[in-house]
């Protein structure tokens, strides 16, 4: 243990609903923990505003104790835009005070509202805070271009999210008949395009009455359910809530196609999860999605808000079993060859070593 470099990682609670927690949970028990001493400091939890506030305040004291007692070699902060940015400021200032290199792993997806449309004062603050970080991690080349408006491009590393591969699920899927089931996983709300889903279901179910949509997540669920009721499509949709573990695995195994009509994304873990289980994908051409969803290979990317485009794409895939099976197999192969957890960990460790060398040289 004493030979290992110490990395203090600022993370959400393991049970938090969202992609950041999913990414970090994959680190636990991985090769990363074998190669480095990872100290997790949880700065966020789900719950009331009061619970979130006390979680954040408590995390600053825990972090200060880690700085004084463990003397970490690197601080690896998992952050987003909006409130997450402000919660991370004390960690960044404390780490800078302790002269410890900072890697800011940015999972945010709404850059326009965060920076482009911000006032002068907030833009100045964002520049000041990000300039204190030794490296920024972007989830895609597109997000690197966005972040390069704030920090020098050479200080930004692109490390894409990863997929947990389930080869047996893919093989099982190839051998069985389709279920005509479309799956959505994630936060139910406007950013994820959920208000477009009822109209898509109405169009798809008109052409394919047997189709079943599963909307698994949490958020503005009641509002979406009301829209479903208005369109009289309740029989074609179910809402199991936020799912994890075996329940999530079961839905990934029994679904045929994954649907994510997002307006803003980085590199969504939900799509990578679906690809690791061999699902065909229909999503949007935003963020890093076009890099993993290749048109007419493992699915289709459509302009956000294009109801007709989404509907035609889903009908095209589910209406042609040969195409569906081909797309499903291609999804698995893309995930397995390019987006494994092993490759992701290797990229993280390469960045750690680069930052540590720079620290040793006093850069």
Overview features:
alpha/beta, 363 residues, 48% helix
What do these coordinates show?
This protein is of the alpha/beta class. It is built from 16 helices and twelve strands. It has a six-stranded parallel sheet, sandwiched between helices. A six-stranded parallel sheet has the order 9-8-7-10-11-12, with helices on both faces. α12 links the parallel β10 and β11 (280-284). α3 packs parallel to α4, α8 packs antiparallel against α15 and α9 crosses α14 (307-318). The longest helix has 22 residues, at 49-70. The chain is globular, with a radius of gyration of 21 Å. The model has no long low-confidence stretch (mean pLDDT 93).
- Name the structural class: alpha/beta
Low-confidence stretches: none
State the order of secondary-structure elements, H for helix, E for strand.
EHHEHEHEHHEHEHEHEHEHEHEHEHHH
Helicity range of the residues?
40-55%
Q: What is the radius of gyration computed over CA atoms, rounded to a whole number of angstroms?
A: 21 Å
* Largest sheet features: 6 strands, parallel
Total strand count, please?
12
Q: How many alpha or pi helices? A: 16
Main sheet: strand order: 2-1-3-4-5-6
Shape: globular
End-to-end distance: 27 Å
Strand content: 15-25%
Estimate the mean pLDDT confidence: 93
